[in-house]
Backbone:
């Protein structure tokens, strides 16, 4: 359910006409809907007990305005870098609702987290435990720690976004979990608080989650038997969203919530979840203008002013995103929808049925609110798309597009090349 709808033949974001918005802010731009973000957050939160910490995964959409919108509803944040930590804090998310994940936290990032007083560090390796202990000791603090265990479950998702099998870099292998906890317990500046897992992203079946949750619940009992104080369970993110109308519907949050409750019943643990995509994906679209309609020999191309530098998911994961005309119409022509970047993979969709399009028309690429703007680059010296947040009739540019000169101004000429 989202708040992008046609009204009188034109696509609106809530009460904002995207055609008018495009004329005011220029294309391409991401447009996020506050009502959709809020609705997704609420539907998800309501599937869990009231005291659950819903730590929005900032990597999915790190715009300060989006973070603030969610933070005001009570969301915490799951961060994976010092930059994301600073963003979450700047958006007003309290430190005690922030969890710090990621395989490569540097000592400087650990220091930032400790000084801010974050809720916990989700530690992913033995050397990271040792480093965190050193940093905490040097600050005279104790670091609250969970260990991310790798439940070795196949998430049945795209190979580039699966994380829970023994083949990838994430988490501590299942077979070493107890030893890792032993190590953590021996390090005086660490305070073990719980167990963490995350098996992958865009997971559309319940069974991999159920298998992983059951393993983690068993581990909690084993670790308690070993004498550790386990009071929190962080189950990560990963619940998928439908990208194409033909996609099987991913499990509803209520079913996911029921699976979680079933798995952790009776353990008396604080529950933490780290959803990203589920909250943000359908709350955003990428609006782009047709630069040319090009008749190729075999195919008809719709060449947009947005490129793979703005939205890399199709090129990187062969991801499907629906593409619609901002002017409502019935699909009458097949187009390959492409960007201007000099790569054959700069292709948003093949054989897409759209109304007859002409230069200057607008399209919206849907389900682009997660892993869209955050993954943008300036490839081909193209400043990434602007970002706009809508709320009812109101809208605001929440990240302006950099000018060419600002982008070029980031480079420096060394002395030996100066005139
Ligand atoms: N927690 C951890 C530890 C994660 O690694 C991730 C995502 C999440 C939570 C949030 O997962 P979500 O609820 O959004 O599935 N760029 C890829 C997705 C990469 C996901 C990385 N980790 C894409 O565009 O599909």
Residues:
């Amino acid at each position: 359910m989202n708040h992008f709808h046609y009204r009188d033949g034109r696509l609106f974001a809530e009460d904002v006409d995207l055609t008018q918005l495009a004329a005011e802010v220029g294309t391409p731009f991401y447009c996020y809907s506050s009502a959709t973000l809020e609705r997704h957050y609420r539907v998800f939160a309501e599937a869990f007990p009231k005291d659950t910490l819903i730590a929005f995964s900032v990597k999915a959409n790190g715009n300060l305005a989006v973070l603030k919108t969610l933070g005001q509803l009570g969301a915490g944040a799951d961060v994976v870098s010092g930059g994301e930590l600073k963003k979450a804090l700047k958006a007003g998310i309290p430190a005690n609702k922030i969890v710090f994940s990621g395989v490569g936290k540097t000592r400087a990032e650990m220091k930032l987290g400790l000084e801010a007083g974050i809720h916990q560090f989700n530690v992913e390796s033995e050397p990271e435990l040792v480093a965190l202990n050193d940093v905490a000791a040097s600050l005279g603090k104790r670091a609250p720690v969970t260990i991310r265990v790798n439940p070795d479950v196949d998430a049945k998702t795209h190979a580039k976004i699966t994380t829970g099998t023994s083949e990838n870099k994430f988490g501590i292998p299942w077979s070493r979990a107890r030893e890792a906890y032993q190590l953590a317990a021996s390090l005086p500046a660490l305070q073990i608080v719980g167990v963490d897992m995350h098996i992958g992203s865009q997971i559309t079946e319940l069974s991999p989650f159920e298998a992983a949750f059951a393993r983690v619940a068993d581990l909690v009992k084993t670790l308690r038997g070993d004498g550790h104080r386990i009071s929190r369970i962080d189950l990560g993110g990963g619940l998928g969203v439908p990208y194409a109308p033909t996609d099987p519907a991913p499990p509803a949050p209520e079913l996911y919530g029921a699976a979680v409750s079933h798995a952790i019943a009776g353990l008396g643990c604080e529950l933490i979840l780290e959803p990203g995509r589920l909250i943000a994906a359908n709350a955003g679209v990428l609006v782009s203008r047709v630069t040319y309609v090009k008749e190729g020999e075999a195919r008809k191309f719709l060449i947009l002013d947005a490129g793979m530098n703005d939205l890399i998911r199709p090129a990187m994961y062969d991801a499907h995103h629906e593409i619609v005309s901002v002017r409502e119409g019935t699909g009458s022509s097949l187009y390959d929808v492409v960007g201007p970047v000099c790569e054959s993979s700069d292709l948003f969709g093949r054989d897409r049925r759209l109304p007859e399009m002409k230069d200057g028309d607008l399209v919206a690429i849907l389900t682009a609110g997660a892993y869209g703007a955050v993954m943008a680059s300036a490839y081909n010296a193209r400043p990434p798309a602007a970002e706009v947040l809508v709320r009812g009739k109101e809208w605001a540019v929440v990240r302006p597009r950099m000018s060419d000169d600002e982008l070029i101004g980031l480079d420096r000429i060394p002395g030996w090349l100066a005139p």
Observations:
- The pocket of LLP is lined by residues 57, 59-60, 78, 101, 161, 198, 201-202, 236-239, 274-278, 313, 317, 370-371 (CB under 6 Å).
- The chain has two domains: 4-31+281-408, 102-273.
- The radius of gyration is 23 Å.
